């Protein structure tokens, strides 16, 4: 807004007797301001136009800030005339010179104090950066002092915290790279990423060796992403430490359980050499131990046992147990005493060298055992045989021998794997031992029993077929994936199988199985209940987890049989980055409610959306958001429902804090509401000699209902009897000003600024002209209007 003066302030007499006399003079002195010789006692000569001549620096030079962030203080220049008085309404251009920063605007207009400024956001790289400000006068030539340079230093904010964005798995295998590698973020006090920092991983507790690339530098997003970490050492729980040396910062992971790794060696348990009676099992049954490279026992490895020279082994394949041990039920020697017997154990997958056990068979006493009644040819697992066997002691010619009190023991000679019950019977006076409760619980298949007695040659039974027993439990046969995504069906759906007590699948239809969430936040989605088919299998079709990132487990339960099973851990990936999808409007009126003004998107390390992550929203002072707690939707989007701006004009913000450490901020400029009132700021009651300029401008301010300055409002500057034609437009802060000169006459005069319809309009100013040149007779009271405010 150019500085201007109210032209020809003419004051009509309030005396009726003088009105007619002054008509001609009023017309001559108050017409268009063209008669610069107006000299009557009621005229003030209009001054000349003020011109901008100088540009000087204000605030904002020499600031230090973090790369990519706005500086706290705006860059400001001041436009003045040759007497150093502020000049409004002059356009000042701003442009970046060094650095890739940005400005809130490429130009600004000077306000009633002559000030013009912009905000400066530094470029993304550290170092010196600069901005240039330029302005021209009315003739198009640069103002004195133009251009003006502003400099700033972009210095990375120091890192204040390390945050684990992606945790290592809850369970890892010894010596094997983690299935899910950790990601660690370095952030400053504002949560902004800090790149280029070397973060070193180590074992904080539990011992062992952390292998792989243990030191990784944070990238441009402040993330250190590990690729091949592995733990070598004994089984047990570990915690990992991720640390920065300078400054000294670290963060600890949750527990990481180290399980056995790949099988590396197979060793035999003692004894490795046996001596036994022909046709009888050796004691104790042979066993082997499987270990990995660190000596940890390896569970679940399948070990095959092979017997030679007509000997029998049961079972032929044994999985190692939780202690890494695979033990056969029996190794029954053959009928020959002339050759050594060998039992060879080897891992089916090929790990480790084979282990060999040897045995020497000796003849029994002058007699042997003979099966006189064979056990049932078929049976159900867990039940006693319908036909119980009978075994007779005979001499070497096969004749029954009366030998009372001989304890005969039944054992498994061949078969998949099982356990006999009621294994002992004692001979009567005739040498006959009749079993009464002999039964077998084991895997479905064909078995051969062996009967033995001290100092007597043993004997084997005929082959019998074992079928599954009644359903006793359920188990997962198609496990869940170790990783999944919230609201997305598991890529492999679980299958639950009915089993008997020995672990045989039971084909029974119609058993209802219910799935539920056993651990982890959220709920289980999809059809959570199904029934078994004719094969005893309950197959789920669309299960999914709807929940926050982290580790979850599922429980599957049945009521008949009463049984349940808990799945392995299913990890939903954490969000590692946040992106802006929808920005709020650049500006809005104070007190306005913005509907759905902002949307963010969360992604994981694979750049895929992360649903169901809780977050909190915090507005700046005076503002309000609804709701304050939100959760990312199926597309990973976080949506701000509504934002009611505070009543103070200026930049207002909403801070987003995501569970797990991510944060973001949005902002808008709250501008003033519609004009509601006019108020006097400065310039009232000034005194100056006749025919001179008042030292200060007359200033009013237009405000909204909350007291914020309103720009762009036209203020009419007139005499208090409404003579004049100067209109001024309020600046960005709602100020409008006018300059005024005194005329040739001594006296007190009234000037006003007015906007129709505003509270407080018009605003009146009193000015007094003093000094030489006053008429000998004091003039009458010629104020155009009383010094009072009227609407």
Measured as a percent range, the helix fraction is: under 10%
**Number of helices in the DSSP assignment:** 1
Main CATH class of the largest domain: Mainly Beta
Tally of separate domains: 7
| N-C termini distance | 25 Å
Instruction: Specify the overall morphology.
Output: elongated
CATH-level-4 superfamily name of the largest domain: Immunoglobulins
Largest sheet: 6 strands, mixed
Classify the beta-strand content into a percent band.
Answer: over 45%
CATH level-two architecture of the largest domain: Sandwich
Please supply descriptive tags for the structure shown above.
mainly beta; Immunoglobulin-like; disordered C terminus; six-stranded mixed sheet; 46% strand; disordered N terminus; 72 strands; 791 residues
Structure, described:
With 791 residues, the protein is mostly beta strands. The chain has 7 domains: 9-49 and 674-770, Sandwich (Immunoglobulin-like), CATH 2.60.40.10; 54-154, Immunoglobulin-like (Sandwich), CATH 2.60.40; 168-259, Immunoglobulins (Immunoglobulin-like, Sandwich); 263-362, Immunoglobulin-like; 368-467, Immunoglobulins (Immunoglobulin-like, Sandwich), CATH 2.60.40; 473-572, Immunoglobulin-like; 577-659, Sandwich (Immunoglobulin-like). Helices cover 2% and strands 46% of the residues. It contains 1 helix and 72 strands. Strands 14, 16, 18, 21, 22 and 23 form a 6-stranded mixed sheet that branches. Strands 35, 38, 40, 43, 44 and 45 form a 6-stranded mixed sheet that branches. Strands 4-12-11-6-8 form a 5-stranded mixed sheet, with no helix packed on it. Strand 68 (714-719) and strand 69 form a beta hairpin. Residues 1-49 and 773-791 have low confidence and may be disordered.
């Amino acid at each position: 807004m150019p500085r201007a003066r109210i032209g020809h302030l003419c004051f009509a007499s309030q005396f009726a007797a003088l009105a007619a006399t002054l008509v001609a003079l009023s017309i001559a002195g108050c017409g268009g301001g063209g008669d610069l010789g107006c000299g009557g006692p009621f005229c003030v000569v209009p001054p000349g136009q003020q011109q901008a001549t100088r540009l000087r620096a204000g605030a904002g030079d020499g600031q230090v800030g973090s790369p990519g962030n706005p500086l706290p203080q705006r860059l400001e220049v001041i436009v003045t005339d040759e007497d150093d008085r502020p000049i409004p309404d002059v356009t000042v251009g701003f442009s970046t010179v060094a650095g890739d920063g940005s400005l809130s605007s490429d130009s600004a207009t000077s306000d009633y104090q002559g000030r013009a400024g912009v905000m400066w956001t530094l470029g993304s790289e550290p170092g010196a950066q600069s901005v240039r400000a330029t302005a021209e006068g009315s003739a198009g030539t640069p103002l004195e002092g133009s251009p003006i340079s502003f400099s700033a230093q972009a210095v990375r904010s120091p890192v204040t915290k390390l945050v684990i964005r992606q945790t290592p798995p809850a369970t890892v295998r010894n010596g094997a790279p983690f299935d899910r590698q950790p990601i660690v973020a370095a952030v400053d006090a504002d949560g902004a990423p800090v790149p280029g920092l070397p973060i070193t991983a180590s074992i904080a507790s539990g011992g062992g060796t952390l292998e792989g690339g243990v030191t990784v530098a944070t990238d441009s997003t402040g993330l250190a992403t590990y690729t091949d970490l592995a733990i070598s050492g004994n089984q047990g729980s570990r915690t990992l430490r991720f640390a920065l040396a300078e400054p000294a910062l670290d963060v600890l992971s949750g527990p990481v359980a180290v399980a056995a790794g790949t099988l590396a060696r197979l060793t035999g348990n003692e004894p490795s050499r046996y001596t036994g009676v022909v046709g009888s099992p050796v004691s104790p049954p042979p066993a082997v131990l499987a270990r990995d490279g660190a000596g940890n026992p390896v569970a679940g490895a399948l070990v095959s046992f092979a017997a030679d020279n007509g000997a029998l082994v049961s079972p032929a394949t044994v999985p190692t147990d939780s202690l890494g041990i695979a033990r056969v039920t029996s190794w029954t020697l053959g009928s020959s005493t002339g050759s050594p017997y060998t039992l060879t154990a080897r891992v089916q997958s090929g790990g480790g060298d084979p282990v060999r056990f040897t045995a020497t068979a000796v003849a029994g006493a002058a007699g042997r055992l003979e099966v006189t009644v064979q056990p049932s040819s078929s049976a159900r697992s867990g039940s006693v045989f319908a036909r119980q066997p009978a075994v007779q002691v005979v001499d070497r010619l096969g004749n029954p021998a009366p030998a009372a009190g001989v304890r005969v023991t039944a054992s498994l000679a061949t078969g998949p794997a099982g356990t006999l019950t009621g294994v002992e019977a004692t001979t009567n006076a005739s040498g006959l031992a009749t079993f009464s409760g002999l039964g077998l619980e084991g895997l479905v298949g064909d078995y051969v029993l062996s009967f033995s007695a001290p100092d007597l040659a043993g004997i084997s039974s005929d082959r019998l077929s074992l079928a599954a027993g009644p359903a006793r439990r359920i188990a997962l046969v198609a496990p869940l994936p170790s990783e999944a995504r919230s609201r997305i069906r598991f890529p492999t759906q679980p299958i639950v199988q009915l089993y008997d007590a020995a672990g045989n699948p039971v084909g029974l239809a119609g058993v209802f199985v219910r799935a539920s969430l056993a651990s982890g936040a959220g709920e289980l989605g999809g059809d959570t209940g199904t029934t078994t088919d004719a094969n005893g299998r309950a197959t789920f079709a669309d299960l999914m987890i709807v929940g926050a990132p982290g580790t979850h487990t599922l429980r599957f339960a049945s009521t008949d049989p009463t049984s349940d099973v808990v799945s392995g851990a299913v990890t939903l990936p954490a969000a590692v980055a946040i992106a802006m999808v929808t920005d709020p409007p650049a500006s809005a009126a104070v007190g306005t409610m913005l509907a759905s003004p902002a949307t963010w998107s969360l992604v994981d390390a694979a750049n895929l959306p992360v649903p169901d992550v809780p977050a909190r929203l915090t507005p700046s002072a005076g503002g309000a958001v609804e709701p304050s707690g939100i959760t990312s939707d199926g597309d990973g989007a976080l949506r701000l429902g509504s934002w009611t701006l505070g009543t103070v004009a200026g930049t207002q913000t909403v801070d987003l804090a995501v569970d797990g450490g991510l944060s973001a901020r949005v902002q808008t400029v709250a501008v003033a509401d519609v004009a509601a009132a006019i108020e006097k700021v400065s310039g009232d009651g000034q005194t100056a000699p006749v025919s001179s300029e008042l030292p200060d401008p007359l200033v009013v301010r237009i405000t909204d209902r909350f007291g914020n300055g309103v720009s762009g409002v036209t203020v009419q500057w007139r005499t208090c009897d409404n003579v004049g034609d100067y209109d001024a437009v309020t600046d960005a802060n709602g100020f409008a000003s006018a300059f005024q000169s005194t005329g040739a006459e001594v006296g007190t005069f009234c000037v006003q600024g007015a906007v129709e319809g505003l509270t407080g309009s018009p605003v009146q100013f009193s000015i007094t002209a003093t000094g030489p040149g006053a008429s000998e007779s004091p003039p009458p009271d010629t104020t155009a209007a009383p010094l009072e405010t009227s609407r």
